[in-house]
């Protein structure tokens, strides 16, 4: 890994007027303090500044191929779970950054290995990975955790979320909220079938993040095209043989103030 240059900053933002104003404010402040703003990300960047909301953060992470540099989020969006400060906090943040009065919160994405008849593909997600049939097709999947068959699922699809992603689409589906300190992944069903022919779990399954989860198309889904959605990015794969999901070994590092409290943020954003 290359050495980070703390004076080198990369800025990523969305296109709303409030974000342009925050970018100008941030740029003026760091320029006065002798920092350099670069046009593109590389591994020597000492700080990534993400201006926008949670959607902007996810686009940044995917655009920069899951960067290793610390990320500070300036919230100009709605929820802002990943973002740490507001535009009016920029000067105070830079004071703390220069004094190194902050911590780094590491969050761990998940990887999906998709084995198809035509090849093997890999996807990585921060919040979640969704597996479903195309359009309105129901999906029949065998679910294994560490080699043990858990269930033959039949329904619209399955969502696998990280602890940080538990408050996103997972929460909308009725999944559990998991604090990031809990090292777990979560499987949440999407419109599971419950008939005399098929009995599927209707609530989330939490399991240790160091275990391997595998989904295999079975019965009527054998040879089908599957739609896989990663943090809102949509992919189609034909003739899927199996999908293997593991926690990624490549973490993201978010800048947090010493008074950061997950439960306080959760209450202010959702509860």
UniProtKB/TrEMBL annotation:
GO biological process, one term: NAD+ metabolic process
Places the protein is found: Cytoplasm
Keywords, ordered alphabetically: ATP-binding, Cytoplasm, Kinase, NAD, NADP, Nucleotide-binding, Transferase
One GO MF term attached to the UniProt entry: ATP binding
Top-level EC class: transferase
Residues the entry annotates as binding NAD(+): 54-55, 59, 127-128, 137, 156, 191
Cofactor requirement: a divalent metal cation
Recorded GO CC terms: cytoplasm
Xref: HAMAP family: NAD_kinase
Role according to the record: Involved in the regulation of the intracellular balance of NAD and NADP, and is a key enzyme in the biosynthesis of NADP. Catalyzes specifically the phosphorylation on 2'-hydroxyl of the adenosine moiety of NAD to yield NADP.
Protein name from the UniProt record: NAD kinase
Organism: Mogibacterium kristiansenii
């Amino acid at each position: 890994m290359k050495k980070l240059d703390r004076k080198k900053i990369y800025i990523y933002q969305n296109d709303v007027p409030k974000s342009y104003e925050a970018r100008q404010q941030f740029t003026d402040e760091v320029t006065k303090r002798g920092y350099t703003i670069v046009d593109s990300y590389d591994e020597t960047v000492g700080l990534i500044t993400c201006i926008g909301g949670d959607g902007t953060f996810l686009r940044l992470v995917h655009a920069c191929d899951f960067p290793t540099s610390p990320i500070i989020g300036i919230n100009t969006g709605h929820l802002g779970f990943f973002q740490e400060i507001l535009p009016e906090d920029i000067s105070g943040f830079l004071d703390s950054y220069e004094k190194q009065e902050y911590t780094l919160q590491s969050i761990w994405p998940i990887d999906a290995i998709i084995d198809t008849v035509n090849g093997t593909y890999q996807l990585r997600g921060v919040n979640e990975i969704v597996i479903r049939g195309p359009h309105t097709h129901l999906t029949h999947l065998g679910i294994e955790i560490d080699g043990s068959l858990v269930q033959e699922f039949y329904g619209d699809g399955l969502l696998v979320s990280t602890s940080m992603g538990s408050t996103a689409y997972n929460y909308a589906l009725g999944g559990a909220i998991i604090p990031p300190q809990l090292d777990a992944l979560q499987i949440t069903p999407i419109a599971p079938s419950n008939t005399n022919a098929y009995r599927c779990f209707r609530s989330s399954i939490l399991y240790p993040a160091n275990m391997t989860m595998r989904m295999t198309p079975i019965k009527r889904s054998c040879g089908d095209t599957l739609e896989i959605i990663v943090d809102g990015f949509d992919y189609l794969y034909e003739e899927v043989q199996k999908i293997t999901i593991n926690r990624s070994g490549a973490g993201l590092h978010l800048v947090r103030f010493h008074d950061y409290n997950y439960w306080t943020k959760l209450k202010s954003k959702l509860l």
